[in-house]
Design a protein that fits this description.
Elements: H1 14-17, H2 20-34, E1 37-42, E2 47-49, E3 58-63, E4 66-74, H3 78-164, H4 173-204, E5 207-215, H5 216-233, E6 237-242, E7 247-250, H6 252-268, E8 275-283, E9 295-302, H7 309-312, H8 324-330, H9 336-346, E10 350-355, E11 361-368, E12 376-381, H10 384-390
Parallel strand pairs: 6-8
Antiparallel strand pairs: 1-2, 1-4, 3-4, 5-7, 5-12, 8-9, 9-11, 10-11
Helix pairs in contact: 2-3, 3-4, 4-9, 5-6, 6-9
Bound molecules: adenosine-5'-triphosphate (ATP) and magnesium ion.
């Protein structure tokens, strides 16, 4: 490369390479040190620095085999002064060249990394757009499919019920047993399809909540009564404790789903002859909240298999089940807690769990506590975040 760091076909100019003040400063210090005049000229003969040596003989200034200009010295020790000037000038040119090279390399590197960043950003934006599109398609697909599956299934259930009631003629006990199985499985399938439909509608449409003042304790007592026979068959006892006033404002159907999800999990994941305790009490709205009167809490404690620390964060995600091999053993789809969380948060509450493997689990669902008032209205809750904001800022 040429000394200036420029392309070979470009003219190398000393004046362009070294700033005039730097050149002037160099010549001035030589003049003071040696007591003689020195001047520097460009190849074209223009004086670049120095003054009084103008009339003296000029000798070429060569740097790395290339002629860059001329130097003239006058006075005592003029030859030594000229040689020194050449060396000093070579040093200055060397520094200037290094500076130019450094600057152009840094600029080139910056330009390159900027171009890379821009391209990377564009790729990311395209990927995000594609993911959003896929997510929308997935939600639409789930909603459409669930609807299409539900309609014929309702007919299957209806006709099986009519047959088992004898509306199509006498039914033998064996036929009644088979019809019972058909109805049981069809109900299970309907539950699954309904959950998928609800989860997909969480993502695609704002939730509509009824708001009525209701006693959480009464609602929980009803659900416990519903699950008691199923638990009883496996020797599991359900204890129920209600402490204090438990009025909340909410959507009865969705709240019942929250209670049912926590209760069914507690029974499902507890071994035979285990214990499940359910309490409705005043408590904190969020874990760590010091004010323990702001919320009505549903607490469901089981003596089941528990959940490891790294899995806890995921159990509220759609379709997640801690051990997929247990799916066959326990059944379920992995949607119960996703819906429960969405519904609790739409009411301005929080859901969380204290658990460890083999130690059982304690699920808490909190709802803002209200004095008993008659409220009946319907509200739209757009998303988790805006739901929390609408319902009074959510957990703090
Ligand atoms: N009380 C519990 N004890 C131990 N594990 C639990 C408990 N509750 C939930 N889990 C774990 O979290 C997973 C997700 O629970 P979730 O209720 O969402 O789904 P599911 O019960 O498997 O199916 P679904 O509720 O849709 O019928 C469960 O599969 C289980 O692995
Ligand atoms: Mg469940």
């Amino acid at each position: 490369m040429s000394p200036s760091g420029l392309a070979l076909d470009e003219t190398i100019e000393l004046a362009r390479l070294v700033p005039p003040e730097e050149l002037e400063e160099l010549i001035d210090s030589l003049r003071r040190a040696l007591g003689c005049d020195v001047a520097v000229f460009s190849l074209a003969g223009d004086r670049l620095a120095g003054a009084h040596a103008a009339g003296a003989a000029r000798q070429p200034f060569v740097y790395e085999g290339e002629r860059l200009g001329h130097i003239a010295a006058a006075g005592p020790h003029a030859d030594a002064a000229a040689a020194l000037a050449c060396d000093a000038l070579a040093l200055v040119v060397h520094h200037a060249q290094a500076r130019a090279l450094g600057a152009s390399t840094a600029e080139a590197a910056m330009r390159l990394s900027f171009a890379e960043l821009t391209e990377h950003n564009e790729r990311l934006q395209r990927a995000v757009a594609r993911l959003e599109e896929l997510d929308r398609l997935k939600s639409n697909f789930l909603a459409t499919m669930s609807h299409e599956l539900r309609t014929p299934l309702t007919s299957v259930i209806g006709y099986a019920e009519m047959m088992s009631e004898g509306l199509a003629g006498p039914v033998s006990s064996e036929q009644r047993e088979y019809l019972g199985t058909i109805l049981g499985k069809a109900d299970q399938l309907l539950g699954l399809i309904t959950s998928v439909l609800e989860v997909s509608s969480l993502e695609s449409a704002p939730q509509v909540l009824d708001r009525a003042s209701l006693s959480l304790a009464d609602l929980v007592a009803n659900e416990v009564a519903t699950y008691a026979p199923q638990a009883g068959k496996r020797g599991i006892t359900i204890e129920l404790g209600t402490h204090g006033d438990s009025y909340v404002v909410g959507d009865r159907k969705k709240l019942r789903q929250v209670v049912s999800s926590l209760l069914s999990n507690a029974i499902k994941f507890t071994p035979d002859r285990g214990r499940v305790s359910v309490a409705v009490q005043l408590g904190a709205l969020a874990p760590g909240d010091l004010d323990t009167t702001r919320a009505v809490q549903l607490v469901v404690i089981d003596s089941g298999i528990g959940i490891s620390r790294d899995q806890v964060a995921k159990i509220f995600e759609p379709f997640f089940q801690v051990d997929s091999s247990s799916t066959r053993a326990f059944g379920g789809t992995g949607l119960g807690l996703t819906l429960a969380k969405a519904y609790v948060e739409a009411h301005g509450g929080r859901i969380w769990v204290d658990t460890a493997p083999g130690q059982g689990s304690t699920f808490h669902a909190s709802f803002p506590h209200v004095e008993r008032v008659e409220v009946t209205q319907r509200v739209e809750v757009a998303s988790d975040a805006s739901a929390a904001a609408q319902d009074g800022g959510g957990p703090r």
